[in-house]
Amino acid sequence: MDSMLLFIIVSLLIWMNNPEILLANVTKLKTTELGVVRIKRNLNLEVIDVVEWCKEFVLNPESEITRTGKNWYVSLDGVTLTINASSYTIITAHKKKSTR
Q1: Which of 27, 63, 67, 93 could share a disulfide with 76, CB 3.0–4.6 Å?
Q2: How far apart are CA 42 and CA 40, in angstroms?
Q3: Tens-level pLDDT at each residue, the chain (100 residues)
Q4: Residues 21-26: contacts with CB under 8 Å, at least 24 apart
Q5: Are 63 and 57 in contact (CB under 8 A)?
Q6: Taking a C-beta distance cutoff of 8 angstroms, is the pair 51, 44 a contact?
Q7: CA atoms of 41 and 31, how far apart (whole Å)
Q8: d(CA 19, CA 85)
Q9: Rounded to two decimals, what is the model's pTM?
């Protein structure tokens, strides 16, 4: 593999994993009806608009955004959202399990 091709591949991988991509597309976030139920249940949320809550969560400057494979993971205060990287569908949300 020549060095130019390797440079392009590495640059593309870095670009794809850049959290700015998710932040720039936060208005595209959505979920399914079952997703709303799952997120509310998993996080004990009593908000009316789950998607808006998730957008604010993603936009929080203290949120940690990573991408692994086809999903974005947004974590803050023991909560992690899983978001599909191509469709921007919020798949689920989980609280970190406490250790006893």
Answers
A1: 63
A2: 6
A3: 677 766 566 555 555 678 989 999 999 999 999 999 999 999 999 999 999 999 999 999 999 999 998 999 999 999 999 999 999 999 999 998 765 5
A4: 22/58, 22/65, 22/67, 22/72, 22/74, 22/83, 22/85, 22/88, 23/58, 23/59, 23/65, 25/88, 26/55, 26/58, 26/59
A5: yes
A6: no
A7: 14
A8: 11
A9: 0.83
